[in-house]
Amino acid sequence: MDDNVKEKLEAIWPEVIGAVITKRDGKVNLCPINYQATSTIYETPLSICIGLGNTGYTLETILKTQQFTYAYPSREQLKDILYCGTVSGRDVDKLANTSLGFSNSETVESPLLKDAVLNYECVVRHSYNAGQFTIVIGEIKRVVGSNRSNLDKIYALGGTRYGVIKGMDILQEGRA
Ligand SMILES: Cc1cc2nc3c(=O)[nH]c(=O)nc-3n(C[C@H](O)[C@H](O)[C@H](O)COP(=O)(O)O)c2cc1C
Question: Measured from the CB, is residue 137 less than 6 Å from ligand 1?
Answer without folding.
Answer: no
